[in-house]
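It is worth pausing here to work through a concrete case rather than discussing structure prediction in the abstract. The textbook approach is simple: state the sequence, then state the predicted structure, then interpret. We follow exactly that order.
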Amino acid sequence: MKKLKRSSRLVEMTQYLLARPHTLISLTAFAERYQSAKSSISEDLAIIKEVFEEEGIGQLHTLAGAAGGVKFKPMMPVATSLAIINEVCQTLQQPDRVLPGGYLYMTDMLGQPKLLADIGKMFATAFAESQIDIIMTVETKGIPLAYATAACMNIPVVIVRRDNKVTEGSAVSINYVSGSTKRIQTMSLARRALKERSRVLIIDDFMKAGGTIQGMMDLLHEFNATVAGVGVLVESGEVENEERLLTDYVSLANLIAVDMKTKQMEVVPGNYFAMPTN
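Step two, the predicted structure:
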């Protein structure tokens, strides 16, 4: 790259970092890229770090030593997240979104790139310190949420199928009991899709009793993998505590009441906003 003026270099460095979240970039690599002294690069990074933190874009971590450098972690301030989720809750409370069984119609919202990016950043913030290797979701509506989160964390996505696909080779399949319908269902994951002993973040769009997520957790045991976290966009608060199959999860919104006769419901921010760190 040709040598740039400092103002141009700051813009280019910012874009370079934003495009490579959770990636360690050495000062030497920056110095060679911009044909500048490391001292100048350090000053530029200090400016970018200050702006990132003041504007709620994320954190720029500096690692000292010969193998050190900087790493950008996308983060969203709680106040910003809460404002977005409050709008989501208002939208979800529209009467025409009530589906049989107390579910919500959310497909249109899961097709909005800006909202997906924001939700992905919220999950990335919630699990920033969890040392995640890969994100898992089950087909189909959880897929866009998983990819949005993965983009912020710069890690791969693995998709659990309802049926084994011949194009994915041999697979591990298990039966699980759906927590809400009590039906026995099947889920499958290709053997090549997940390395053993991976630390996995499970992301899903809706959780009622938690049967599907528990099924994914059981499937991960077959790979000797660790469940490092569970994130759901909306949880149903109408399930009694003794019927919930899991308790350790992060939700962004909570469907706490549904009246099927009047099509009225109440959706509030989820447990993420009640955590001590927030």
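Step three, interpretation. The CA atoms of residues 251 and 271 lie 5 Å apart. The longest strand covers residues 226-236.
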